[in-house]
Amino acid sequence: MHTTRAGGSDASATHLSERRFTTRFVAARTAMKITAVEVTVVEVPQVPPIAPYRSHIRTSSTSTSAIVRVDTDEGLTGWGEHNVNFLPGVSGPAMTAKAAAWLIGRDPLNIERYHAECPFEPRLRSGIEMALWDIAGKAAGLPLAVLLGGIIRERVELAACMGIQSYKRAGEIAAYYVEQGFTTLKTKAGSDPEEDLAMVRGVRDAVGDKLKLRIDPNCAYTPQQAAQLARRLEEYDLEYLEQPIAADPLSDATWLRQQTTTPIALNESVTDPASVWAILKAEAAAFILPDTHIAGGIWPCVKIGHVCEAAGVPCIMHCGHDMGPKTAAMVAVAASCPAYSLANDSTYYGLVEDITLEPLPIERGHIRVPAKPGLGVEVDEEKLRKYRRE
Q1: What span, in angstroms and rounded, lies between the C-alpha atoms of 356 and 3?
Q2: Dihedral, CA atoms, 193, 196, 197, 199, nearest 10 degrees?
Q3: Angle at the Cα of 83 from the Cα atoms of 37 and 58, rounded to 5 degrees
Q4: φ, ψ for residue 236 (rounded to 5)?
Q5: Which of 133, 232, 280, 361 has the highest Cβ tally under 10 A?
Q6: Are β-strands 155-162 and 366-368 bridged in parallel, bridged antiparallel, or unpaired?
Q7: Residue 70: pLDDT above 60?
Q8: pLDDT at residue 12 above 90?
Q9: How many CB atoms lie within 10 A of CB 366?
């Protein structure tokens, strides 16, 4: 059946696929109900060069996610994922009980109503919402990217990532990423400005301009420290300096942009479409980095993309050491929204193994949009048990 890609079939086949989509979607829309939900916390080891992943806050060599399963009375199962790295007291059974009490019996396809009424905090809300989109795609027989508007990028570019490194090690890792076909590198930063500068020099001395370079201090610096660092970074032609200062007040980011020619990107300041509207009005960022577990789901990230497209500001999907479901969701958003035109953050290639049946293949720094319905990935129940943290 010819319903999985944009373009490329004759009129009769297109009409048939649209009729099948409408029939299946309406049938599911009027009958389907959620019957069960389960949240499982998993912890998967990472491998070099991602591990050990050092920020100015901590160093880690594992990725922890909550994997969400939603079942329906039509026999469809949706999978979702939300980041729970470094959160104390995270419990899969507790999240399951909270989700089941509110979710069971509801319509999995009315995602706008889900957002209007959902009482959960953004992480859990996003993991469940991802599973609902997976169900919607399976009900329609279409990939998620098609449901979000259509595939405008068959292959989504990834930005390779790196923790804080020494001058020498930064150069070695940068050279490795160039060999692997990546064209963009994002590094952690923020322990010390001199260390940040040495790391940037290590990358530039090793690979020159073969990698676009982004550094992320994760709110480590005062506005004055960030301005001084940004000015010293100007000669290294960064693609952007990501959230070097606290998220509030937003006026500090506006001031910082006026002090330097190094472009400023915001991530921690991006919490929902309204926050992005405020950032754009304040001219506080040249780039916007949303994430599903911060914004509350796929749909808010799509809306953020629409706002930024209208303003002519590029978006980049942020990652939280994601596994297969969340990576597939990132690919769908980036493939379908014009604003997500640059390489998107990913450490997916740094997992010892994914928890899906078939990992998403990375080819020369790109992931091809999955052709299967929904997210395009299925969770391996055996791996879910293997990496279950509780």
Answers
A1: 24
A2: 160
A3: 150
A4: -95, 0
A5: 133
A6: antiparallel
A7: yes
A8: no
A9: 18
Q: Alpha-carbon distance 69 to 79, whole Å?
A: 5
Dist CA 8 CA 6 (whole Å) = 7
Bridge partners of residue 161, in order along the sequence: 186
SS3 assignment for the chain = CCCCCCCCCCHHHHHHHHHHHHHHHHHHHHHCCEEEEEEEEEEEEECCCCCCEECCCCEECEEEEEEEEEEECCCCEEEEEEECCCCCCCCHHHHHHHHHHHHCCCCCCCHHHHHHHCCCCHHHHHHHHHHHHHHHHHHHCCEHHHHCCCCCCCEEEEEEEECCCCHHHHHHHHHHHHHHCCCEEEEECCCCHHHHHHHHHHHHHHHCCCCEEEEECCCCCCHHHHHHHHHHHHHHCCCEEECCCCCCCHHHHHHHHCCCCCCEEECCCCCCHHHHHHHHHCCCCCEECCCHHHHCCHHHHHHHHHHHHHHCCCECCCCCCCCHHHHHHHHHHHHHCCCCCCCEECCHHHECCCCECCCCCEECCEEECCCCCECCCCECHHHHHHCECC
Name the packing angle between helices 122-140 and 298-311 (round to 10°).
Answer: 90
Q: What pLDDT, in 10s, does the model give residues 24-50? A: 554 444 679 999 999 999 999 999 999
Question: Using CA atoms, how far apart are residues 342 and 344, in angstroms rounded to an integer?
Answer: 6
Torsion of CA 251, 253, 259, 262, to 10 degrees: -160
Distance from C-alpha of 207 to C-alpha of 49, rounded to nearest angstrom: 17
> What's the alpha-carbon Rg for the chain, to the nearest Å?
21
Conformational region of residue 322, where left means phi above 0, alpha means psi within -120 to 50, and beta covers everything else: beta
Residues 6+ apart with CB under 8 A from 88: none
Give the dihedral of Cα atoms 241, 247, 249, 255; nearest 10 deg: 0
For 337-368, what is each residue's pLDDT tens digit?
Answer: 999 999 999 999 999 999 999 999 999 999 99
- Cis peptide upstream of residue 249 (ω within 30 degrees of 0): yes
Q: What does the alpha-carbon distance between residue 210 and residue 352 come to, in Å, rounded to a whole number? A: 27
